[in-house]
Amino acid sequence: MKILFSVLKYKLITNESINIGILFHNLDTDQRVFETISKWSRLKSFDDEIDIKYFRIMLDGIKEEIQSNLFTDTVEFYMKEYVKRFYNEMRFSEIYEDYTEDFIEFIEYNKKNFLRYDYEKKDRPNKTEQISYMKRLMKAKEIEYSVKNPLGTHQETIKYDYIVGEYAFKFFSFENKNLDILIHTAKAWAYTAEEMKDRYKTIFVYDVDINTNKFNTIIDILSKPAYKLLKFDDTLDFILDKYNAKKRIF
Q: CA of 29: how far to CAs of 24, 72, 77, 178, in Å?
């Protein structure tokens, strides 16, 4: 089965965002599913001015519209057109695609990656699983990537997680980690990014924001030599944007 899906984000004027739902469309069966977060306290912490009760009613309305027979009986559902309606505080990500034999299992798998904070820590994907997930989505989109380990200026092996064209990605996981150790790791990678800048545009990806001085120190260290810092949730949109721009040129 071929599945299209897009992540619904709630975005502040500061450009910070939080994932609040995922829209799935099974192209083989025309089944449409809209899943939302269930831990609303996290959204309230993200924006303490939001009216959660009203917001939930609004999302329930979206779910009812998407999953109703209206599109089946009268109008064909096109995700690309539907997501264009949302362009203010709520907006959908790029449309991703993948294949599965089990639609229900597929939904759960993607929820764990994009709505990860709805799950207990032990059930959330780890760093390796998140990187693997990103590679899977790139493969489904036929985006070429490399996992080669280029040599540095001193002939040492540079272990990027994956390389897409001129962009080299390195993932940092901060959740439940010792930030003192990560400060030293960040310094090493900052040095590497600076050395490699003539060959690759290094992009540092991270999983979660943490409200501590040590976290801010790490972000400051990484941001100076990096081409870009990205949250994990925004990585594929960045890659797709560059990929689509390249296709338009040719």
A: 12, 11, 12, 46
Any idea which residue has 């040095």 for tokens? Answer: 191
96 Cβ partners below 8 Å, 6+ apart?
4, 5, 6, 137, 140, 141, 236
Q: How many residues does the chain have?
A: 250
What is the spatial distance between Cα 68 and Cα 73, in angstroms, rounded to a whole number? 9
pLDDT, tens digit, for every residue of 51-82? 999 999 999 999 998 887 666 555 568 899 99
Sort residue 177 into left (φ over 0), alpha (ψ -120 to 50) or beta: beta
Number of H helices, E strands in the chain: 9, 9
**Taking the CA atoms of the chain, what radius of gyration do you get in angstroms?**
19
Strands 96-99 and 162-164: unpaired
Q: Label residue 250 by pLDDT band (50, 70, 90).
A: very low
